[in-house]
Amino acid sequence: MNSAVVAECVLLALILALVYAAFYALFGHPSSREGRKRKQETRNGFRLAGGILLGFVLMGSLVACAGIAFGGAGSARVSRPLAGLIAVAALLLIGLMMRWWAKYFAGWIAWGIVNSLVMASSGHLLNNPGIPVSRPVALTMAGLCAIAVFACRRFTASYKLNAGDKLALVAWVLAFTWAANAQRSGIVAMSVGSLALMLAWWSDRKKTHRHSHSAVQRHEPESQRL
Predict the structure, then answer these.
(1) Residue-number span of the structural domain to which 177 is assigned
(2) Residues 121 and 49 in one domain
(3) Among the listed residues 193, 137, 199, the one whose alpha carbon sits nearest the alpha carbon of residue 162
(4) Considering the entire predicted model, what is its pTM?
């Protein structure tokens, strides 16, 4: 049997399995507790996968349309004003969904560390040996991504984003867009984004320490204060 036919059969089987899982998550009525739990896990999996795909679409639209709107002439299909509107709309949606994607943000940036280290090892762009990449630049990008991961690891599901965190995340997204469209100043752009995240982390840490110190003083016995 032809290898292409085998690959197509496997792909078709995967598609049918995903369609079945989707119908089960939407219309299934399991009677057992394990079945209901499995249905909820399936639904959560589709929700997560959909969110990841939407995130790629929004970030891709922001980067591509910002490059068209501010970096040069419009393409054959999208004019510069329309590209600017799409970029602004993508940025607004990213900001509105921030509470959902912030808890996954550190893991997403961690892939940037892996990609940068691979490029530093190979000396060229990922999946494109024809475009060389400076190894010091790739290692610097890996370090900046590591700083961002350190600053964002506190964004758990139970963590409530404050105004400083939201501003820092938006700054990083804009810095990433800048770096993707202006590779010569990519290090500067990513440095600005990582610095914004570190400042937000430092501010939150300082505020938490101050509140903890105040709580200790309130519960401190009167004799110890004297």
Answers:
(1) 100-215
(2) no
(3) 199
(4) 0.75
Q: Are residues 193 and 109 in the same domain?
A: yes
- The SS3 of residue 129 is strand
Region 186-209: mean pLDDT is: 91
- Residue 224 falls inside a structural domain: no
Q: What is the pLDDT of residue 94?
A: 92
Q: What is the pLDDT of residue 2?
A: 62
Mean pLDDT of the chain: 81
184-210: b or e for each residue (b if 16 or more CB lie within 10 Å)?
eebeebbbbbbbbbeebbeebeeeeee
What phi and psi values does residue 108 have, to the nearest 5 degrees? Answer: -65, -45
Start-to-end CA distance of the chain, whole Å, equals 88
| Residue 163: per-residue pLDDT | 92
**Which of 123 and 163 is assigned the larger pLDDT?**
163
**What is the spatial distance between Cα 21 and Cα 44, in angstroms, rounded to a whole number?**
12
Residues 86 and 111 in one domain: no
Q: Note whether 106 and 209 are same-domain residues.
A: yes
- Please report the sign of the dihedral spanned by the C-alpha atoms of residue 45, residue 47, residue 50, residue 55: negative
- What's the structural domain count of the chain? 2
Judged by average pLDDT, the poorest of 72-76, 93-97, 184-188 is: 72-76
Domain boundary among 48, 64, 96: 96
Strands (E) across 94-223 are located at 124-125, 128-132
The rounded distance, in Å, linking the Cα atoms of 71 and 219 is 58
